[in-house]
Amino acid sequence: MKMNVLAASCALALSGLATQASAQALTPFGTPDLKIQLSGATAPDNFLQSIAEGLFEPGFFFYQDDGATPTVLTDDGRLYRAFFGRVKNEAAIPADLRGKSVLFIKRSKGGSVWGVDPIARGSRIGTLDVRAAACSATAITTGSVTSYRCAEKGTDPGLPNYLLASNAGEPSDFGVSDVEPAMFKGPYNVEFGQSQLTNPEVARLQVRAANVLMMGISATNAVPATTIIGRSDYAGMLSGLIQDWSQVDSSITTGNTQVVVCRRVPGSGTQTSYNWFFNNFPCQNAFSGTVAPTRMVADSASGVVSGTGTQADPFVIDPTQGYTVVENSTSGNVRDCLSRAQSRQAHTFVADDGKWYRIAFNLSTTDPFRAIGVLSLDSFANANPDNNGWSFRPIDGAGVYNANTQAFTAGPGTGVPPSKANLIAGRYDFAVELTLQYRKVAVTNAHGDNIAALAGLKKTFIDYFITRAGAPEFNTGPATAALPIDFDPTTTANVARATRFGNTCSPLQKIY
């Protein structure tokens, strides 16, 4: 929003210190006025990045993790992104934030539950080490992204040596999750080595709904565009009840007909969304009320065939042996999994147990793999069959759907596609209401650190960030919409007409 002359004059008069600070040029590893850490869901990463970028003056610095492989650039930015810049001097921004230098770190590693449980508990968790000593000396360009590549620091709960006083992890200030905190129940929706929050722990959180985000059915190019994929088909593949594509499409009889599932780790909000929509967990946990999602080691046909789990000698799973499940830490890892299944390249990554795994797609010498994915529509820009080898598909229909053009590009174009129009109208019900949360009371964490309730300038920044995330003008993309409990869709664009009122287990209700 542009300020008029009078508003600009008032803002400058009220923020003289900020104006003085803005005259000083920032350096890549200078000391910020404010450091903000956000952890959790990877599904809305691209959306949240646009929110963060919109807050800073041009010329801010960008950082991402080096994937624990300093000599390899292709796996960067899957776990962390960070920005260091000066907040814009605009009327819409709270006056005491304008001109402040802010280091904003977003952790995506592990997904949504890391924006819920560690927030309530004030836990030290791994973070990006944005220091000159831990980052590349100069910015590096990878594709269209120019960034400093930095190492991770700290150990997560559940891993060896977590409770050592020397653990360099840091508590996050606030978290983001694809679904509300109440959805993160054991045994399928809790992070590695941890238990679900108790009711008193949940009560520590101030939870605010932000927007509604579409989840999607995705598949590699090797799955024909003419294949009809029903909701029950996808559910069966995710649960291991369908392990061969011939059970979905009788015309698929050659090549790698076995199903490959590129899913997320337990505790991921995206995985939690799929567990809800396809497995009915945790909305009904009575006898026979849910179906367990399949797991990487236990349910893959080969299991682990070799390796010790180190980066130099990862555990190897052979997908040529049959049905294969891959548990990925981030949405970026899922996208890599799909692309490499199609291109027959080995997929190597670190899982939530801290061990390294390699899915040996390269063992198929001629035929690509037919894989499905667990992804939100926030990955629409990467759903490129020509370049990345996979696409989004409609529910209960056939065809390749392009969210950029909002049109089918191949196949008969039947079923319910993940279009913005369907999201707005309430016709596409595989959508979740994203929440952001922070501590409203002080807590003492497992290390004995006293972690204060969110307050002061940090609270001002985070409250404003959350407000931006829910505003219709920041939900113009094809994957999200503002909520009708906050805005009127009959008078405002980019607002959904249906909602679950912040309760994923409730039916979708059209209120306009």
List keywords for this structure.
D-Maltodextrin-Binding Protein, domain 2, 19% helix, globular, 11 helices, 512 residues, four-stranded mixed beta sheet, disordered N terminus, alpha+beta, 2 domains
List the helices and strands and how they pair.
Elements: H1 5-14, H2 16-22, E1 34-40, H3 45-55, E2 61-65, E3 80-86, E4 101-107, H4 117-121, E5 127-128, E6 140-142, E7 145-150, E8 152-153, E9 174-177, H5 199-202, E10 205-220, H6 231-239, E11 256-264, H7 269-279, H8 296-299, E12 304-306, E13 315-317, E14 324-328, H9 331-343, E15 347-350, E16 356-359, E17 369-376, E18 390-393, E19 400-402, E20 407-410, H10 420-425, E21 431-439, E22 443-444, E23 450-451, H11 456-470, E24 480-481, E25 498-499, E26 509-510
Parallel strand pairs: 1-4, 1-9, 2-7, 11-14, 11-17, 13-16
Antiparallel strand pairs: 2-3, 3-4, 5-8, 6-7, 9-21, 10-17, 10-18, 10-21, 10-24, 12-13, 15-16, 19-20, 22-23, 25-26
Task: Describe the structure concisely for a colleague.
The protein is an alpha+beta fold and 512 residues long. It contains eleven helices and 26 strands.
**Class by helix and strand content?**
alpha+beta
**Which shape, going by the Cα principal axes?**
globular
Largest sheet: 14 strands, mixed
Our Rg estimate from Cα atoms comes to 23 Å
How many domain modules? 2
Q: Strand content of the residues, in percent?
A: 15-25%
Number of helices, counting only DSSP H or I runs of 4 residues or more: 11
What gap, in angstroms, lies between the N and C termini?
Answer: 28 Å
How many DSSP-defined strands? 26
Helix content range: 10-25%
